[in-house]
Amino acid sequence: MLLGAHISVLGGLSNAPERGRDLTCDCMQIFSKNQMQWKAKPVDLEEAEKFIENSREFKISETVVHDSYLINLGSPDKAMLKQSREAFLDEMVRARHLGVRYLIFHPGAHMGAGEQAGLKRVADSMNWVRKEFGSGGVQLVLEITAGQGTLLGNSFEQLKRIIDQLEDQKNVGVCFDTCHAYAAGYDIKTKSGYARTFDLFDDVLGIEYLKAMHLNDSKGKQGSHLDRHEQIGRGFIGTEGFRNFITDPRWDNIPMVLETPAGDKMYKQELKLLRSLAKKR
Ligand SMILES: [Zn+2]
Ligand SMILES: [Zn+2]
């Protein structure tokens, strides 16, 4: 099992691995820059080297990067789309410097242009950045969303329609966020619902596309389309729902990270709870 959390890079990227280890993380997610700003200084190469060294020293076996919340690869606004694509390309370059395999991102929002047009724009954006960046190195990992507003990517079918339009279908994957998937309508709480959900994932996308998971409980009910994370065990998914994930050997080597609202204050306890679910099978 690779369990971890979203870790702050306060004070420098190279501080994150020790912070993650203190919170008992085996893996982690970070923002490689301030997620609410467009511009950032390029990654300092010495700092990147230190990050990689510290990851080894503090036994963080995998780090994934989440992109900035400002980026919308599906925007119908030309200037916004251009800015988003360039910022996304920069995210890829930063991830490569940090030795990171997976860049996780929300596909985007169609902003009223419609689902079809939005999905195509996301795919076009991904094709553009892949061409600029070159093949390999960093994989683009589409996160399933709760489907709030005009957000794209709230079903396996929508994610598949993006992937189908990509020129490079190898360096791409999906991040399964438990809160988003549940809010989007998927039953992952009951044993049978969980089994059906991942059978469907395999039918539509292929299970090999699943590269990472976000473990978050949900403040909203199943199908509510609310993207509101809750601490593990305190939301509508509940402890038993997470047992389905923790006891499933298919995810043994897949990074699973918390993005729960209490952050550092509760991560350790939440990870302990999740690990305890593996033992009492
Ligand atoms: Zn997430
Ligand atoms: Zn979310």
Structural account:
The chain is of the alpha/beta class and 281 residues long. The protein has a single domain, classed as Divalent-metal-dependent TIM barrel enzymes (TIM Barrel, Alpha-Beta Barrel). 41% of the residues lie in helices and 15% in strands. It has helices at 16-22, 45-57, 78-97, 115-133, 156-164, 178-184, 191-204, 238-246, 264-279; strands spanning 2-6, 27-30, 62-66, 102-105, 139-143, 172-177, 210-215, 217-218, 229-230, 255-258. The strands form two sheets. The protein has an eight-stranded parallel barrel, surrounded by four helices. Strands 8-9 form a two-stranded antiparallel sheet. The radius of gyration is 18 Å and the shape is globular. One zinc ion binds at residues 143, 177, 214, 259.
Question: Which key terms come to mind for this protein?
Answer:
single chain; 281 residues; alpha/beta; TIM Barrel; eight-stranded parallel beta barrel; two-stranded antiparallel ribbon; 9 helices; 41% helix; binds zinc ion
CATH homologous superfamily name? Divalent-metal-dependent TIM barrel enzymes
Average residue pLDDT: 97
The Rg value, from CA coordinates, equals 18 Å
Helix and strand string, N-terminal first? Answer: EHEHEHEHEHEHHEEEHEH
Distance between the termini: 15 Å
CATH topology: TIM Barrel
Decide which structural class fits the backbone. alpha/beta
Q: Into how many domains do the coordinates divide?
A: 1
Helix content: 40-55%
Poorly predicted spans = none
Q: Could you tell me which ligands this complex binds, including any ions or cofactors?
A: zinc ion
User: Quick one: CATH class?
Assistant: Alpha Beta
CATH architecture: Alpha-Beta Barrel
